[in-house]
Write a structure and sequence with these properties.
The chain has about 90 residues and is mainly alpha-helical. The protein is about 85% helix and about 0% strand. Helix 1 runs antiparallel to helix 2 and helix 2 packs antiparallel against helix 3.
Length: about 90
């Protein structure tokens, strides 16, 4: 355990930021699962609506540095491809 005041503060700040990052990643994963569920149900309108929400969530996470920009781009691209392949 840290003895220096600034080190103790860094530990607290890092825990707070880690929790915030975890919440954001969880929200992104949930949004992706909703898109996948809509694709599995073959509901194109719902899939498109959920795709917009998921894309927004991923872009926000990437802008905050939670996801690398290429990772975010790859996730969005794969979801777009899956939705566009629907009948």
């Amino acid at each position: 355990m840290a003895n220096i005041k600034s080190a103790k503060k860094r530990i607290l700040v890092n825990q707070t930021k880690a929790l915030r990052n975890k919440m954001t990643k969880s929200a992104v994963k949930t949004a992706i699962k909703k898109v996948d569920a809509a694709i599995a149900a073959n509901d194109k309108e719902l899939a498109k609506a959920e795709l917009l929400k998921a894309t927004s969530a991923i872009d926000k996470a990437a802008s905050k540095g939670i996801y690398h920009k290429n990772t975010a781009s790859r996730k969005i691209s794969r979801m777009n491809l899956a939705v566009n392949k629907m009948a």
